[in-house]
Automatic annotation (TrEMBL):
It is an enzyme of class 2 (transferase). InterPro entries: Aminotrans_V_dom, Aminotrans_V_PyrdxlP_BS, Cysteine_dSase, PyrdxlP-dep_Trfase, PyrdxlP-dep_Trfase_major, PyrdxlP-dep_Trfase_small. Homodimer. NCBIfam families: PRK02948.1. Its EC number is 2.8.1.7. This is cysteine desulfurase. Keywords: Iron, Iron-sulfur, Metal-binding, Pyridoxal phosphate, Transferase. It holds the Pfam family Aminotran_5. Belongs to the class-V pyridoxal-phosphate-dependent aminotransferase family. NifS/IscS subfamily.
């Protein structure tokens, strides 16, 4: 039996998406910047996808800028705002941002910008009062992840954006994990910039989008032919973008039913492991519907990497919270940010669910995890 439980890492492209992309590559492969028939057919497809992706977050089509993925979208948002300033200013992020936000923030810091990293509580939530206290007259941008990919916590984005706007700063959110798994309405919230990624929505890898509030000017970070309203030069990947558009359309249509289904399966997993040495991480109430994560606070001799390998031998794909490089395990900065020690921060695992996940899959995965614990810690696996 093969069970994939790593949908936060990537989702398999839907058959409908694959079929459409194949059709586009065979018959609508023109350069959308060309004025002839081949180009205008591709340009029409491009704008249709722009409208479909915009609808997912209730944004006008013209506000959507296609990129190569969530990482580029985050970089364009942060560096694109920063490049509008003649002198270094101030940026606020959270202590649990994805590297696609935290790394460009470090780049700005090296260039003389002041970076404030907001703390979070034990469940990974930001206190809005901390944001209010951190804002300064020269704050250019606040960037807060909406749904955290490692621990699943959802932030109070509407309130954080409102506080930011009251102080005159811009607000960006990385909504890569949230899109398709929760209602996003950029016209009902004071959100200036929002990042999306296709391959988290059963679309192709290699394409994403950045919502830029109409009227807001940011600077490009790539020079070239001026595509995407001069914000993202380079010939658009039409087949990928078309696939992204269809995936967004289908995600929006299925979202209410799928959220309820995934939440029920997720909660069953928490129940199945409640009497083990695993402790859940993240916020149980304000949580991505498809996301379950755990660590071993009292048994830090077992790493997340070990658990991933053992589950893989059982035919089950999960993810480790700790980053692994060249065989070396480094503590998860996210788990450390929510108060865990370095040894415990190496034990984190994440199981994320998707369209193909069933209750039976979760029962099997929970049984496998329990057995791995019993083999590894025969005297303390059960509490």
């Amino acid at each position: 039996m093969q069970i994939y439980l790593d949908y936060s890492a990537t989702t398999p492209p839907r058959p409908e998406v694959i079929d459409l992309m194949q059709q586009v590559m065979l018959t609508q492969w023109g350069n959308p910047s060309s004025l002839h028939h081949w180009g205008t057919r591709s340009a029409t497809l491009l704008e249709q996808a722009r409208w479909q992706v915009g609808r997912l977050i209730n944004a006008p089509a013209e506000a959507m800028v296609f990129t190569a993925g969530g990482t580029e979208s985050d970089n364009l948002a942060i560096l694109g705002v920063a490049k509008r300033f003649a002198q270094p200013a101030h940026v606020i992020i959270s202590a649990i941002e994805h590297a696609a936000v935290s790394e460009p923030a470090k780049m700005l810091e090296a260039a003389g910008w002041e970076i404030t990293r907001l703390p979070v509580d034990r469940s990974g939530r930001i206190n809005p009062l901390d944001l209010q206290a951190a804002l300064q007259p020269n704050t250019a941008l606040v960037s807060i992840i909406w749904g955290q990919s490692e621990i699943g916590t959802i932030q109070p984005i509407a309130e954080l954006a409102r506080i930011t706007h009251e102080q005159g700063a811009l607000f960006h959110t990385d909504a890569v994990q949230m899109a398709g798994r929760g209602v996003i309405d950029v016209q009902a919230m004071p959100i200036d910039l929002l990042s999306l990624s296709s391959h988290k929505l059963y679309g192709p890898q290699g394409v994403g989008a950045l919502y830029v509030r109409p009227g807001l000017e940011i600077a490009p970070v790539i020079g070239g032919g001026g595509q995407e309203d001069k914000l993202r030069s380079g010939t658009q990947a039409i087949a990928n973008i078309a696939g992204f558009g269809l995936a967004a359309k289908l995600a929006l249509a299925e979202m209410p039913i799928e959220i309820a289904r995934l939440t029920a399966i997720r909660d069953r997993l928490f129940e199945q492991l409640a009497d083990t040495a695993f402790a859940s991480t993240g916020n149980r109430t304000h949580r991505l519907p498809h996301h379950a994560s755990f660590c071993l606070p009292n048994n830090s001799s077992i790493s997340g990497k070990h658990l991933v390998r053992q589950m893989n031998l059982a035919g089950i794909g999960i993810s480790a919270g700790a980053a692994c490089s060249s065989g070396k395990i480094t503590p998860s900065p996210i788990l450390q940010a929510i108060g865990h020690s370095e040894p415990v921060a190496q034990t984190g695992i994440r199981l994320t669910l998707g369209k193909a996940t069933t209750m039976a899959d979760i029962d099997w995965a929970a049984m496998a995890l329990r057995q791995i614990l019993e083999r590894s810690l025969p005297t303390v696996a059960m509490v």
